[in-house]
Design a protein that fits this description.
The protein has four helices and twelve strands, in the order H-E-E-E-E-E-E-E-E-E-H-E-E-E-H-H. It is of the alpha+beta class.
């Protein structure tokens, strides 16, 4: 039975990949000297100081943001602070976007978004944090206005010398991590759908698929998930 469920999940992964929307446009902008003269930069250290500001822009095609029943639309980004177990104070805004990397996006009308930070992936020498952003309000407004893209901006909250990066290379859609691992899709029951959803996230290296909280998504997490799933157990 387990092999059959895994095979079914593999088909679900392929279908999910085929249905995936176009990738977002991702880039950083820098205002050196705080003069208001922005430019695109390779600097991946997001910060706000008296002498410079670096922000992260990510622009999604509106139709590529899937809807999850009851929970709306969420986007999860990874974030790495310079010091382990230090969670930088961040501010996240949305703006109406066009899918292009332009300096004008720094001055576009923008509105703050609700977000939460999950710190459990940290370790002694490093930390990888998950930032969950609720984009439902932005999605609905841009959709009503006939827009095609939604942009999300990351930046430090106020003047802060801490450096942090949100360019670890993965993002995904979903809801905050399930409180009960065996019920991975948070449907209220433990069944084959939980395997399918877990394997999609495990293939992507999503933070929630790091079942043993080692900071890496690997074969150990795969095995642990099935142990919990067989027993219908929670962490």
């Amino acid at each position: 039975m387990l092999n059959r469920l895994i095979a079914t999940a593999a088909v679900m992964i392929a279908a999910n990949a085929a249905a995936a929307g176009p990738p977002p446009t991702e880039y950083n902008l820098i205002d050196f000297g705080r003069t208001g003269d922005w430019s695109v930069t390779d600097d991946n250290c997001l910060r706000t100081t008296a002498t410079e500001q670096v922000i992260r822009c990510t622009e999604f095609v509106l139709g590529a943001l899937p809807h999850r029943r009851f929970t709306g639309r969420w986007v999860a980004f990874s974030m790495s602070p310079v010091e382990p177990w230090v969670v930088p104070a961040v501010r996240i805004h949305w703006y109406r976007a066009d899918g292009l990397a332009t300096t004008a996006d720094a001055a576009a009308p923008r509105y703050e978004l609700t977000h939460s930070v999950d710190t459990w992936a940290g370790r002694d020498q490093y930390a990888v944090l998950s930032i969950w952003v609720d984009v439902e309000p932005a999605y609905r407004q841009i959709q009503a206005e006939g827009g095609s893209h939604v942009g999300i901006q990351f930046g430090a909250a106020g003047d802060a010398v801490e450096c942090f990066s949100s360019q670890l290379g993965y993002y995904y859609f979903g809801e905050p991590c399930p409180p009960c691992i065996s019920d991975y899709d948070q449907s209220g029951g433990v069944d084959g759908d939980d395997i399918g959803v877990f394997l999609v996230e495990w293939e992507r290296g999503a933070p929630c698929a790091d079942i043993d909280r080692s900071g890496a998504v690997d074969g150990t997490d795969f095995s642990l998930f099935f142990e919990y799933w067989h027993g219908g157990a929670c962490l």
